[in-house]
Design goal:
The protein is an alpha/beta fold. Helix content is 37%, strand content 23%. The protein has 10 helices and 11 strands.
């Protein structure tokens, strides 16, 4: 019975995975599931999919429960549209990352720099004479019992019975050794000036969710920092990052200076894999400030980052000039990746551009 339940559960999970894979584009573009995140699980609504369940009854046409089975009239007028069955399925973030990687054929990331953390790697390669029965080493126990019986002359080859006693028992034990683990930090930057409205921020929020899923699947430790800017820049928490809106102008270099400061003081390239992401509508207050941004990228940010990603969100008020300037000045530097996000359909290609190099 247990095996059958596990088999049915595995089949149901395969159906769910197939459904998500088939509609990956819609899930990536839909920001609804981001609000359903809890811990390491995401609740995804899957219309038209029902959990397997038992139905009791003898399938007779007459008789519903108790009574004579007389149909009772329902309340309200009859409709001509079928009802929609929506099942919410909890999917681990790691599994979503795997599905995203399969959909976009993303390569695994090769960490750079010196590993930061030391963790205990546990291997069950040792043996000891005491321990819980769940860790008993059957082969070594039987060998010890056989050796004892042979030495004692109690072993009969014609009736080869091996009966272990307490002294024969061996148990597996763990051997721990320190191992290095790579750490990464994502520095999110976004323009929150008046030209970046709610629609633009929702595009950024949806894309950031999936990028974070993928990077988290590649690193055991993943830190995040959030920087917002208009004419000035400051570090904020995640909620403020996606909901704050200012009415000032735009000075992108302020965000890049704060990013460079974080990299110098807290996230050095020798210890961290650094991923700065910047989202804007492409408006900067002057060409001179754009030159300052390019200088900061060349001298401080790009040398210390695995990759710098700039996503330009389409806005009715943005000129879109900043991406053109970056591409013209730094097109030969593979550590810079830019993309243009016109609408929700542009999220998936943008993620592919950012993560497709495996940096």
């Amino acid at each position: 019975m247990i095996r059958r339940i596990e088999r049915d559960r595995t089949r149901f999970n395969e159906i769910v995975r197939g459904r998500i894979r088939g509609e990956m584009k819609r899930f990536v573009a839909n920001g609804e599931m981001i609000g359903r995140k809890g811990g390491d699980l995401v609740s995804i609504p899957l219309p038209g999919l029902e959990l397997p369940h038992f139905r009791f009854g003898d399938n007779r046409k007459d008789g519903v429960g108790q009574g004579d089975g007389t149909p009772q009239p329902g309340q309200g007028e009859a409709g001509d549209q079928p009802g929609e069955h929506v099942l919410e399925v909890e999917v681990p973030l790691a599994e979503l990352a795997q599905l995203l990687g399969e959909e976009l054929a993303l390569p695994r990331i090769e960490p750079k720099g010196t590993d930061l953390l030391e963790a205990d790697a546990t291997r069950w390669t040792g043996l000891r004479r005491t321990g819980p029965e769940s860790l008993r080493h059957a082969r070594r126990t039987l060998k010890a019992a056989l050796r004892r019986q042979v030495i004692a002359g109690t072993f009969d080859p014609k009736d080869p019975r091996i009966v272990p006693i307490r002294a024969d028992r061996h148990y597996r034990s763990a051997k721990r050794r320190p191992t290095a683990e790579s750490a990464a930090v994502v520095i999110w930057m976004m323009d929150v000036s008046g030209s970046m409205g709610k629609e633009q921020k929702e595009l950024v929020r949806a894309e950031a969710f999936w990028i974070h899923c993928w990077l988290k699947s590649q690193y055991r430790q993943l830190e995040t920092r959030f920087i917002v800017h208009d004419a000035a820049a400051r570090e904020v928490d995640e909620h403020a990052f996606f909901h704050l809106r200012e009415s000032g102008g735009t000075k992108i270099s302020a965000a890049y200076e704060l990013c460079a400061q974080l990299m110098r003081e807290k996230f050095r390239a020798s210890e961290w894999n650094v991923y700065p992401f910047h989202f804007s509508d492409g408006d900067n207050w002057s060409g001179r400030d754009t030159e300052r941004c390019i200088e900061l990228l060349q001298r401080e940010i790009l040398p210390g980052a695995n990759q710098f990603c700039y996503g330009q969100v389409r806005s009715a008020y943005g000129s879109g000039q900043f991406k053109k300037d970056l591409d013209a000045a730094l097109s030969r530097d593979e550590r810079l990746v830019t993309s243009e996000i016109q609408d929700r359909d542009g999220i998936l290609p943008s993620i592919k551009a950012f993560l497709g190099k495996g940096r």
